[in-house]
Every structure is written in structure tokens, then in C-alpha cells.
Amino acid sequence: MKLDSRQFSKEAHTALVEIKSELAVTYHKKASGLVQGLSTYISTWGLHRLSGDMQKFLGGTAEDTRYKGKVYQKFLTKLKEFSCADFDVNDQGTLIHMPLRKYTGSKSILSEQTY
Description:
single chain
């Protein structure tokens, strides 16, 4: 699946603007760094691990890790919308059980856009 990098960038920017309003100012730089490292993280660990970590961080008690869960959740939500992939953002099992071609197609969206 080949994507228009301009559309991908627009989606990424929109997601960052949206998540910025949900985070305390002290986490803006950290969230930006987290976003910049997402393609490496996903290449190494996969989308299912990202979904699992999202749940772990969102359910955590420390505010300094919950922001990670919010960033991961926003990313997965936008990826689902943009790629039209059929998975449940809040259920890593749907990513694990996704047919391999669909799963690798979702991951390739990221690798094609890495500069």
C-alpha cells in the first residue's frame, strides 16, 4: 500500500495538535520525543506491543507515564482511521490475530513514511 506522504504528515500533525490539548504542558516535549521514536519502536516490537503498553500506561497511577498511554492511543486511533485496518485500538489481541498481510500492511505505512 503506497500512501501520499503529505496526507500522512497532515494526519500526524492533526493527531499531535489534538493530543497536545489533552496533556499537561510539562509533557509536551516528552510526548514529541515519544512520537519521533514510534517508527523505531514499532519496527522493533510491533503494533501489538504498542497496544499493550498503551493499556499499561493508561492504567498506571503515575501521571508521568499516563501521558505515554494517551500518545500511543491517539497514534493507534489515527493509524486505524488512516489505514482503514480493522483492529480494536484497545485490544492488542485483534492485532495479534490479524492476518499477516493486513498486519504487515499496517506496519508498512510507518516504514514507508520514515525519513
